[in-house]
Design brief:
The structure holds 2 protein chains of 2 kinds.
Chain A: E1 4-8, E2 13-14, E3 27-32, E4 38-46, E5 57-65, E6 79-86, E7 96-102, E8 122-127
Parallel strand pairs in A: 6-8
Antiparallel strand pairs in A: 1-2, 1-3, 4-5, 4-7, 5-6, 7-8
Chain B: E1 4-11, H1 21-36, E2 45-49, H2 53-57, H3 62-69, E3 76-80, H4 86-99, E4 106-112, H5 119-127, H6 132-135, H7 141-156, H8 160-174, H9 188-193, E5 196-198, E6 201-202, E7 212-220, H10 221-227, E8 231-241, H11 256-269, E9 278-281, H12 286-295, H13 304-310, H14 327-331, H15 335-351, E10 363-370, E11 375-384
Parallel strand pairs in B: 2-3, 2-4, 9-10
Antiparallel strand pairs in B: 1-7, 1-8, 4-7, 5-6, 8-11, 10-11
Helix pairs in contact in B: 1-3, 4-15, 8-12, 8-13
Classes of the chains: A mainly beta, B alpha/beta.
Chain lengths: 128, 385
């Protein structure tokens, strides 16, 4: 299991990847974010969750510094953000968090989304 | 290009209704025909704003059903889905149909039937608009609001009470709206003591789940004069799209679709923020009122909360009354109807038909937001003579 961000020919990076960057550039490589720690940008604890989702559900937008994977060009982006689940409510804004593999982030088929249309495993993050 | 006029408007009571989607749409549609003084067989185009009747009720083809139910056959008909901004997108589509010359009489009806579903089910239908990497985290639209509100409060050193004041203001306005789901005042303390839904936001920071329908009748200005001396014109309208994946936005407190659609509407109408007398903003969550005020140029970034604290957006005493209808917060949010209902409120304000909610206004704006700022329509209306 990986958590792949995509770097594009224009130096931008996104998670998830798209067929083209926001500027229309083609993908050139992927970066596995599961090998990095990240910083919490903001977070929430949701107490009203949809079918098949844990309650409460701790969520955060986190930012990865991937500068060591980017070495070509001073204009290239060196960070990328992701929406992730947190393992618990211990993390605060600015905290460093690391990934922990989870087989099912929510129960496939319990909600409206067709279970076979996407994957359901991934990473929860906890304070380092 | 001839200006596009609005000559009639209607909305049903919003709330928990016994009727299903086809009945709700027909109720607003027939009321709008009567309000405009237009016969059903005069309607050339019929647009239906609706996000998810198939998912909520198992009923598709609602535009065909409505045309049949109200006797508007053989009008061209189309369903408009742009999630929560389906209503605004419907105004844009109806405006295009008239402005292009394709139709001389266009009826727009927006509606949704939601309350028969549990909160979890309704939340999941709405959250299905998210990207797979978002959906598998269990994120909901309220969760996005919670994360954005925390970021806004921390970054701009805004007090939590300022968000509660948005809710309190809009509930106060809703008391005078007979169509509102909640006609009751809610004070700041009640907001701050209500149950947490998506920390730091609480129950009263969120709009309810709602059934309802609303409608507008559009035609060229020259045709409008055949029906009435008093009407409203759409002087500016534009739509714009932001990233599908919310966390990919450069600044979590900037909704690019609001900024872009607002600039387009201002340019088309040759108006600027200071010209707006009254505004209906998409307060699905209290934090969205701040983000739209800033994105539309009513406040600098990070300063909308100060205007709310100063009373700038109060209905009876503020310089720019915001959400005189009660907003989605008090009036309710039947997805496909909400953008149309915003237009109904601005129409009534400009026509002097807003009753106890009436403010002094000649130019009004409505901003309808889909997803979490994913798709946005901004419309500017003015009195027409």
């Amino acid at each position: 299991m990986t958590m792949e961000a995509t770097r594009y020919d224009d130096g931008t990076i996104s998670y998830p990847g798209h067929p083209r960057s926001r500027n229309g550039a083609e993908p050139v490589e992927t970066i596995d974010l599961s090998e990095y720690t990240a910083e919490v940008v903001t977070w929430t604890t949701s107490t009203a969750t949809p079918p098949g989702v844990r309650e409460p559900n701790h969520l955060a937008i986190v930012e990865f510094d991937v500068s060591e994977a980017v070495d070509d060009g001073k204009d290239a982006e060196t960070s990328v953000r992701a929406l992730v689940q947190l393992t618990n409510d211990d993390a605060e804004t600015g905290d460093e968090v690391e990934p922990v593999y989870t087989e099912e982030l929510r129960e496939p088929g319990a909600g409206i989304r067709e279970p076979d249309s996407q994957d359901w495993d991934g990473y929860r993050f906890e304070p380092v | 290009m001839e200006r596009v006029a609005i000559i009639g408007a209607s909305m049903t009571k919003f709330g928990q209704r016994e009727e299903w989607i086809q009945e709700l749409l027909a109720e607003a549609g027939l009321d709008c025909l009567e309000d405009a003084g237009v016969e059903a067989d005069e309607v050339e185009h019929l647009y239906v704003s609706n996000m998810a009747s198939g998912e909520f009720e198992g009923q598709t083809g609602v535009m065909n059903g409505l045309a049949h139910d109200i006797g508007a056959l053989p009008a061209y008909t189309q369903r408009i889905d742009q999630t929560s901004s389906s209503g605004g997108a419907g105004i844009y589509a109806a405006w295009q149909s008239v402005a292009s010359g394709a139709s001389e009489m266009t009826l727009l009806v927006g509606g949704e039937k939601m309350t028969h579903r549990t909160t979890g089910e309704a939340t999941d239908v709405i959250a299905s608009l998210t990207h797979p990497v978002e959906y598998k985290t269990g994120v909901t639209l309220p969760s996005f609001a919670g994360m954005t509100a925390r970021h806004y409060l921390e970054r701009f050193d805004a007090p939590r009470e300022s968000l509660a004041k948005v809710a309190s203001k809009n509930h106060k306005n809703g008391v005078d709206n007979p169509h509102a789901q909640f006609q009751k005042e809610v004070d700041v303390d009640t907001v701050l003591e209500s149950p947490i839904v998506a920390d730091p936001l609480r129950l009263y920071d969120f709009c309810p789940i709602t059934d309802g329908s609303a409608a507008l009748m559009l035609c060229p200005e020259s045709v409008a004069r055949e029906y009435t001396d008093d009407y409203v014109v759409i002087s500016g309208i534009d739509g714009a799209t932001d990233t599908h994946v919310v966390h990919e936005r450069e600044d979590p407190t900037v909704m690019g679709g609001v900024v872009e659609s607002g600039e387009g509407a201002y340019e088309m109408s040759d108006r600027e923020p200071d010209d707006i007398d009254v505004a209906e903003l998409h307060d699905m969550f209290t934090i969205l009122e701040f983000l739209q005020m800033e994105g539309l140029g009513f406040a600098e970034q990070g300063e909308a909360w100060e205007l709310v604290e100063e009373g700038y957006t109060e209905r009876d005493t503020g310089e720019l009354p915001v959400n005189t209808s009660g907003g989605l917060k008090s009036k309710g949010h039947p997805l496909g109807a909400s953008g149309v209902a915003q237009g109904v409120e601005i129409y009534e304000q400009l026509m002097g038909e807003a009753g106890d909610r009436q403010v002094d206004a000649e130019v009004g704006l409505c901003c309808n937001v889909g997803g979490f700022g994913n798709c946005v329509i901004t419309t500017i209306m003015e009195t027409g003579q």
